[in-house]
Amino acid sequence: MTTSTSTAPAPVPATPPAIVKQKLRPDRKKSRGVYDVLGLLFAVVMAFPVYWLVISSLRPNHEIRSYDQTLWPSSLTFDNFARAVEQPNFSTAVQSSLIVSVTAVVGGMIIATLAALAIGRFRFFGRRALLMVLILVQMLPPTAMLIPIYAQLNAMGGLDEYWGLIVVYLVSTLPFAIIMIRGFVVNIPVELEESAMVDGCTRMGAFRRVIFPLLAPGLAAASIFALVNAWNEYLFAYILINDNSKYTLNVWLMTFTTERGTDYGALMASSTLIALPVVVFFMIIQKKMATGLTSGAVKG
Amino acid sequence: MTAADTQEAAGPPAPPVPRDPKGTDGRPTPGNGTVRATGKRRRKKGELLPFLLILPAIIAIAAVYAFPLTKTVIMSFQDMGRRELWTGESPPWVGFEQFTNILGDSEFWSVTGRTVLFMAVCVGLTMAIGLLVAMMMTRLSTWVRLTLTAALIAAWSMPLMVAASIFRWLSDSDYGLLNTLIAKVVGEDFLGHNWFLDPWQGFAIITLLVVWGAVPFVVITLYAALTQVPRELEEAAALDGANVRGIFRYVTWPVIRPVFVMVTTLSVIWDFNVFGQIWLLRGNKPEPEYETLGLYSFSKAFESTSFSQGTAIALITVLLLSGVAVFYLRQLMKTGEVE
């Protein structure tokens, strides 16, 4: 079959790059051990704060309020978690976070996929300009947006409402999601689509039967990334929502700090609960992320 | 290369399409330079489709970015305070007054200097550590690499709020681990040491937090780029007598450079806009000496309720960053990312 001109900026291998298995030269073997030790050391440094979070959340309170912090707890207890869950508004905060993040991500992904297909598959007037706008938009400081958005939502009665926050989150995930998904689109050989269309699929059918299945992993990665971002966002949630029954989890975390000090045990326990789903999701998509981010850049 | 027609003209003649009686059911397939387009109607459809696809994104971005940005510019030339916000009256126009006030304010300049210094330190540390660790990763045993990746991802996936809470807890003056450990070395006097009394020490903690949070992204991205470096080239360079530094400079670096530049630029922008970490480590009430441009704009807007002052500062920040943004775009165009 003769290949016709592809619309991708460069010839792209049919499969996304796999992590290359590396052969070792014999003289590398000697220095192996040194690097391994260094690598483990760095892993310990990076993981330590996470370890400290988990361990602090399981410590009895008298150990937390102690001038002699030990690296290893004497006993484990779930008291902190109990206090965290009993803190007012815990369940509404979980609900708020879920409603806002999931809605924003579902909406954002639909819009981003459409745009990514257009950018990755077509050459049209204004395509470069659009890409540039997407890149530039990510560079805007959030505070530059915050004040006018606050004023505007205030005028529209959108303060203290989920929808205001949802719209902000949805759009803030777009630039990155579009660029990321475009990276996956470009990696799908255009010939596949062509052959499906030659075999009688419409463009829509080709998308549904060929592109979408191949795009699904990339989409999952982009959605999780967007979800994590929405889940973690603090500033807009803090400013746009004043009603404490609508607080998102991040804003709710601040309720552990009062004039009388901070309940670190409960704070660490709730932080663990908030971070847990994120860590799991991240583990799933991390490989995809790096591929999606670099595929376009490395292969030009 | 711009429009689709050059594509179509340049393309080789399309392979004869097998006439499948069931398949094409009379509907034209809109081609994008792949199937030879013949009918005018078909070309039109092919040209409109991408615009339809990007329309929702354009509308959404215009609503949440373009519109507020325009409003930022407008508000900067007005004097909008709390009263105008609540009554909905249009604020008085004041021309460049906000800007002359800000630029003539020595506090603004010290905040800007602080922001730039903080950004430079964070980016420098992040990129240096990131590159070294990424290069190290290519030489680790598989199990160590997996362990390190897991640790990096654990750190990376910590929500900003959670990370800030952990570091607040670690640096707590009474019960923080940091003081306990240092007291073991320098003596009991150190217990109860408040890290945030002196902004230099406070910013050291904030820098630790920012770098710790940013390194994983840099390492994993650079490592992914490093795996694209052809091993044969490195081997060949080594056989030709290149030393480690030579191999890096002439073989490895050219391949990872675009990614490195991309990540650096992103770091510059992110670290310039650091807000949450400082905000949270100072318990939602950052002292003036902890203000970076973002916080400064925020406190002017929401605490002094001079929204116009806040937006003017934000606008100046945007202008400062636009230089970085232009550089970034030029780099991308060089590498052919924006084709």
UniProtKB/TrEMBL annotation, chain A:
Record GO cellular component, one term: plasma membrane
UniProt keyword annotation of Transport present: yes
Q: Which residues cross the membrane?
A: 33-54, 98-117, 129-150, 162-185, 206-228, 264-285
Assigned keywords, A-Z = Cell membrane, Membrane, Transmembrane, Transmembrane helix, Transport
Topology versus the membrane: Multi-pass membrane protein
Q: Which PANTHER family match?
A: INNER MEMBRANE ABC TRANSPORTER PERMEASE PROTEIN YCJP, MALTOSE TRANSPORT SYSTEM PERMEASE-RELATED
Name under which the protein is recorded: Sugar ABC transporter permease
From TrEMBL, chain B:
According to the entry, every stretch annotated as the ABC transmembrane type-1 domain falls at: 112-330
Q: Where in the cell is it found?
A: Cell membrane
Its record classes its membrane topology as: Multi-pass membrane protein
User: What does the record list as GO biological process?
Assistant: transmembrane transport
Q: Gene Ontology terms, cellular component aspect?
A: plasma membrane
Q: State the residue spans of region: Disordered.
A: 1-41
Per UniProt, the keywords (alphabetical) are: Cell membrane, Membrane, Transmembrane, Transmembrane helix, Transport
The principal localisation class reads membrane
Regions that span the bilayer: 48-67, 116-134, 146-170, 203-226, 247-270, 307-329
Can you tell me which family this protein belongs to? Answer: Belongs to the binding-protein-dependent transport system permease family.
Task: Report what the protein is called.
Answer: Sugar ABC transporter permease
**Organism of this sequence:** Streptomyces niveus
